[in-house]
């Protein structure tokens, strides 16, 4: 499969929640299509059957800083380089659009992956509604 990660790939509102659920996350159905209107840009990849198999986005004010979120790869397509290609493409688009700092949060088990993608560890804070 050719890895053609497409910025602002046309995506139906139900596709990302379905992909989120396939990896064991909450679908967050009410976030879509609103997310597409509010984030700076997103990227996606479809397989030969036109099924969405990869998705991620960067959101922020569109100035110097952006936040990367929802790096999702379909379980049947993980560990094939798609995740790294997706992150790389999002970072290229961030640089192209003038974003100089991209942050993200992730589970500790993904630390090596994001380090391999060029992210440096840093201290941060997190607030979550209880």
UniProtKB/TrEMBL annotation:
InterPro entries per UniProt: Acyl_CoA_acyltransferase, GNAT_dom, NSI-like
Transmembrane segment boundaries: none
Domain N-acetyltransferase: 6-130
UniProtKB keywords: Acyltransferase, Transferase
Matching SUPFAM superfamilies: Acyl-CoA N-acyltransferases (Nat) (SSF55729)
Coiled-coil stretches noted in the UniProt entry, renumbered to this chain: none
The keyword 4Fe-4S belongs to this UniProt entry's keyword annotation: no
GO molecular function term, any single one: N-acetyltransferase activity
Keyword set includes Transferase: yes
GO cellular component, one term: cytoplasm
Record's protein name: GNAT family N-acetyltransferase
Species of origin: Paenibacillus rhizovicinus
């Amino acid at each position: 499969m050719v890895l053609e990660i497409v910025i602002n790939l046309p995506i139906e509102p139900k596709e990302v929640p379905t992909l989120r659920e396939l990896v064991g996350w909450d679908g967050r159905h009410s976030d879509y299509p609103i997310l597409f209107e509010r984030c700076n840009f997103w990227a996606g990849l479809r397989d030969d059957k036109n099924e969405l198999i990869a998705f991620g986005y960067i959101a922020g004010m569109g100035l110097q800083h952006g936040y990367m979120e929802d790096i999702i790869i379909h379980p049947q397509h993980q560990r094939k380089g798609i995740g790294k290609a997706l992150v790389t493409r999002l970072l290229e688009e961030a640089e192209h659009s003038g974003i100089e700092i991209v942050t993200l949060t992730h589970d500790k088990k993904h630390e090596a992956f994001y380090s391999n993608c060029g992210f440096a560890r840093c201290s941060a804070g997190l607030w979550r509604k209880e």
